[in-house]
Amino acid sequence: MLEIAILAAVAALVGWLMNRKRRQRSAAVAAGETAGVPCMLKWSAHGSRWRAGRLLIGAGPPVWKASWGGRELALPTDLRRTGTRAPSTREGMSINPGSRILEYASSAGVVLIAVMPDELDLVGKALESA
Questions:
Q1: Predicted model pTM
Q2: Contact assessment for residue 74 and residue 101, using Cβ atoms and an 8 Å cutoff
Q3: Cα torsion for 73, 45, 105, 55, to the nearest 10°?
Q4: Dist. CA 25–CA 82, nearest whole Å
Q5: Most buried pick, 50, 55, 56, 109, via CB within 10 A?
Q6: Cα–Cα–Cα angle for 10, 11, 14, nearest 5°?
Q7: What distances in angstroms separate CA 107 from CA 27, 42, 44, 45, 58, one per listed residue?
Q8: Phi, psi angle pair for 99, to nearest 5°
Q9: Burial classification of residue 46, based on how many CB atoms lie within 10 Å of its CB (0-12 exposed, 13-18 middle, 19 or more buried)
Q10: With bands split at pLDDT 50, 70 and 90, how would you rate the model's confidence at 130?
Q11: Vertex 123: Cα angle to 121 and 125 (nearest 5)
Q12: DSSP secondary-structure letter at 4?
């Protein structure tokens, strides 16, 4: 019984910390500062795999920074949103199945960005205004 109580306390703490971080990112973008939103990127010009990283939005053009290696990629400036969808069963093996995929078309190819539903509006508005 004690284990269940400890597990519930840890789950509540993790939920609170994640919500706090999301609010900090939203406030930073609203203030015009750069914020890194965790996401997965799949860009046809750079291979066919989903890559983990952060989308740096806010001041300046949006840039994606890889989690491993720190490589930064500037996203195309001519992004046009073509849709939003849930991941397919196959994509759910590579990315979080609870995420949503933003589909964009550009002169450099199709760009797919997977973000959690809480960050969907933040990322969508930032990429549309860029």
A1: 0.81
A2: no
A3: -20
A4: 25
A5: 55
A6: 85
A7: 32, 15, 11, 10, 23
A8: -80, 175
A9: middle
A10: low
A11: 65
A12: H
As given in the structure block, the two tokens for residue 5 are: 């109580």
Radius of gyration of the chain (CA): 16
DSSP string, 51-85: EEEEEEESSSS-EEEESSS--EEEPPTT-EEEEEE
* Euclidean distance between the first and the last CA atom of the chain, given in angstroms as a whole number: 52
> 61-120 pLDDT, tens per residue?
888 999 887 788 888 888 899 999 999 999 889 899 999 999 999 888 899 999 999 889
Q: Which residues of 62-93 are buried (b: 16+ CB within 10 A; e: fewer)?
A: bbbeeeeeeeebebbeebeeeeeeebeeebee
DSSP 8-class letter at 123: H
Q: Which helix (H) or strand (E) holds 126?
A: helix 120-129
